[in-house]
Amino acid sequence: MHKSTTASGQHGTSRQGYGKLHKSGSSIEKENIPFVDSDHEDDCIGRRPATAAISSKSTVDQENDTMTESQENLARAYVARYQPSLAERRMQEKLTVSIDNSSNEGDLVEEAKDKAMELKLVDERARALRRNSISLPSLNVNELQRLAQQGQDGSESVIDSGSDSLSGETPITPETPTTPANFKPMLQFNDNSSSDEDDKPRGKNLFRTKRRSSIAPLPALRLNDKEMMSNDFDTHSVLSNQASITSVNSLASLLKEKMQNVPAIIRKKKRETKDYKLRVFVGMLFLIIVFLVGYAYVMYNQKLLAKSYFESIKFHKKTRNFRLLDGKGSELLTGVLGTSLNIEQPYNCLPKDLKDDGSVCYEWNSKARLYMNLAKSPGPPDIKCYSFQWESLLPDLYPTDCFDVSEERGFWYGGGLTNGIEYILGKATIPGGPFVTGDINTHQWGNALKRYFLNSRGVAIQVDDTTPLYVSVNTDSGRRLCLQGRNDKFAFVNRQTRYSELKYTICSGPDMKTLHNGLMQKSLWDGLTERDNDVIKSLLREPVWQIPASKQEDLTEIAIYNYTESIIALGYLRLGHILVNEFWQRTIGDFRLDSERFPTLDETVNILHRRGFRVSFMIQPFISTESSNFREAVAKKLLIYERESERSIPALTRYKSTTSAGVLDVTNNASIPWLAEQLKKISETVEIDSYFVDFGTAFNIPRYYQCSQTLVNPDEYKNYFMERFEGTLSIFGVSSAISVPRPPAFLSLPPVNSSWSGLQSIIPTMLSYGIIGFPFLMPGPVGGDFVLPTQQLKKMYSYYSFDLPPLPDKELYIRWLQLATFLPVLRFTHLPSEYRDDTVTTIAKELAEIRQRVLPLLERFSSIAMDEGLPIIRPLWMLDSTDVNCFSINDEFSIGDGMIVAPVLERGETVREVYLPQGVWKDGIDESLRKGSRWIHNYHVPQNKVAYFIKMPDNTRF
What we know:
Layout: H1 4-24, H2 69-81, H3 86-95, H4 105-112, H5 122-128, H6 141-153, E1 221-223, E2 226-228, H7 235-243, H8 251-260, H9 264-310, E3 313-315, E4 321-325, E5 331-336, E6 347-348, E7 360-364, E8 368-375, E9 384-392, E10 400-404, E11 412-418, E12 430-434, E13 445-455, E14 459-463, E15 469-473, E16 480-485, E17 501-508, H10 512-519, H11 530-541, E18 544-546, H12 557-570, E19 577-580, H13 601-611, E20 614-619, E21 622-624, H14 628-635, E22 641-642, E23 652-655, E24 658-663, H15 671-685, E25 690-693, E26 705-706, H16 716-724, E27 731-734, E28 746-748, H17 756-760, H18 762-771, E29 777-778, H19 810-820, E30 827-828, H20 838-868, E31 873-874, E32 893-895, E33 899-902, E34 911-916, E35 920-923, E36 929-931, E37 934-940, E38 947-951
Parallel strand pairs: 18-19, 18-30, 19-20, 20-25, 25-27, 27-28, 28-29
Antiparallel strand pairs: 1-2, 3-4, 4-5, 5-10, 6-7, 7-8, 8-9, 9-17, 10-16, 11-13, 12-15, 13-14, 14-17, 15-16, 21-24, 22-26, 23-24, 31-32, 32-33, 33-38, 34-37, 35-36, 35-38
Helix pairs in contact: 1-4, 19-20
């Protein structure tokens, strides 16, 4: 702040300097300064009216500037803060008068004078001082024109904006000096003070020191959407705030200081408002982040599933064409899914229909629903499995999936033995029907089945056990294997779901051998006792001697004794198991010895045991209506009863020679103890070593059957029986199965006709059953099980009972015996001695010696079968799954991977074609070494020889 004397001196100097400049005629720079309002107030403790004058200013030295520094700062702050619009600038340009060099010096000097005013007390100044406004008053066009006219006339103008931004107190009217035609409006405060100002007490200087500091008006504050002007605060607060500004460029410090003086309640409200908005913002941001993370997680899982699923599987939703690809993009499997549906575009399933396992789901217009997903691989990691599940939404819609089984797509195996004895499934012709066991002579499938199909390209299909499965092969257009889910009135009458379903798994591997080994049932040792292991070894080492009896009167105690005597008389074959068929009882289901035909059977059996034989009886769950046990079983409700009837009405069927029989309900908890008690009575009379269970087939179950516990299909009866009698009976063989029977039980091959065609069916049957997972197989007797009548029947039935064949043709018997020598179990009805031919006897002795050399291999690979589930008798492709020549060979087989057998199966043939896989093989006939991976054409096999080759170490050299 300047004293009055100092101010006067400065003004004087200013006037002198101005006069000098004017007289010298030096050019004065023209400046255009817009008009500004002069209503401002300075910082001070005492209150004093602020005076503002509009004056012109020529270009002079800084020392001779007639504007005070505070005035200049205020003008610049206004110009910087409130930039006028284009229209306002144009109007201001009209009102701006440039200083003319020709102005009279006296007039300019007079104009530049500051008029001293008497300082008033603070209180008086406070009353007269108008409260500062955040925004300076604005002038309209008319006011500006009037002001300009007054300036030209030399009169004083009083400017009052009349806006609500001014206080209600009387404002100080600035003086407007009279000037010539050209003048420069500006803000000007009187910085002179009276000499007696020092006598009056004051806390602070009224005016600022001469320094570059901002005195910009307080900014407008916005609180809760309401603009609060600077005049809402008291004068002391405003003056204090303006006095605290120390820097032109410190806008942030200025705002901070202003906010510190806002009343505490206003600051609190503003802070609460800011906190509320911040919380809302953070909450919204959090929800957005959660949504994005969840969405990304779902999309990532779907993308991962789609990538892992559809990188190998290509599925066209509209046409439902299906392709399974390998790692190189080559097709492994092709087909069409849902062939029972029309071609239409599906849509994604509704959320309520989705599964929790992340399956991909499609629905076809409320007709059917398809679920596809990755499945857990039971084998090594290089095996990938995919699950498919169809759910029908209509009662008459049966989901059907068909796959190409032509040779261009590889060779297909599995399922079981077909009606035409086809080893390669793609060559069979099977009309659609229930996939259940049956009589191979009358039904489409044989006595053992597994829902497992294998392709030579390294693809396998496994159908779920609960699916009501129908299978057809090559019956529609093209060569296709079709799987259908279909409920019917017999095989799948017990519905597991409301409508038909089809559920299966497709697995792929690097090759067929690796895939098959990974999918096979593993260890079979669980629950195996030492005695069971002895039974397995005895069946491999010793023959099974089936007492020949096609009629009940043919089986007597004397017949058993004489037959065993003939076996002992051979001298070159081991003694083994004596198998007595169902005729040991008077009627089927008696479970008691016929005392008339076996008066002293207990003594005969004791003799047989002392000689080294084991005695086995054949039993069955059928009870003839003529048996005395039938009445008891009906009274105790132990039999399968008619569907939708009282349990006292048993369901009847036919079994072999029995025209009417009931079936023991093994799902009834009371039936198992009853049967066990019946068999115990037999053991008390005759010491029986083991039993052979004849289940018949699914078609031997009554058509309208109903059990105490619902069965998925009639074949499940076999599983129930084996589980219930596990540990109770010693079972060494079963006639039918859909799952691997618990060792030491061997699965018996179906009965075959005593003919060359019957002989030719043995190897395909052994290979087929081995592929689907039955490692322990028992072939029928050498020479066949029965002989068809001379006049062929127009139609055969499963309950037909045929007589045992008479003595087969000698050549057929020899070739049959040669084949049986290499099979796991050697089984006889007709003895070699019955031919009374030295040639037959000599050949039989030679084969007995070969059998002894084969036994180590059989025992070795039987242990491997127990560990890995692999069959003992294997197809050649299990030795080399990359050799295409091995895929279609069905008249050779290998014992494990140590020996290949190629018997002669044609009448009168002494030569044949032999194929050896890779490796070095030793010829069993002449002991020569032969290189593998090639065909041996016209290989000579005389009648007394059999072709077999022993695998040599890989480092063997010729």
